[in-house]
Amino acid sequence: MNAPLGDAPQSLTGLHVVDAEGTKVGKVQQVYRDDATNEPEWVTVRTGLFGMKETFIPLAGAQRSGDELHVPHAKATIKAAPRIDANGHLDPSEEAELYRHYGMTRPGGGGDEGDEPQ
């Protein structure tokens, strides 16, 4: 995974997420760590009408610039991500579904571990 370097996970919370085209998507709500490595792997951002949906975005390829977190995905792709409750733990099947949606493979080759918020 290529998470933003030098940042404690809690320092990502509140950053403005900017998509691959430079469009603001929303603010980082939660940071999820990989169970095996304890490294930040996912963030959630509020999307949808009135910000009622919390959507997962992988940190792979993300770069921090000031108060912005630039992700290599289009806003439409982010908004179309599978609906998964951001309420504590991301299980392996949910994580696999998200990686498929973003056209990615899980770093480290899969494993049975899920992710937990920081």
TrEMBL record:
It holds the Pfam family PRC. GO terms for biological process: photosynthesis, light reaction. Residues 11-68 form the PRC-barrel domain. InterPro entries: Bac_photo_RC_H_C, PRC-brl_dom, PRC_barrel-like_sf. Signal peptide: none annotated. GO terms for cellular component: plasma membrane light-harvesting complex. This is PRC-barrel domain-containing protein.
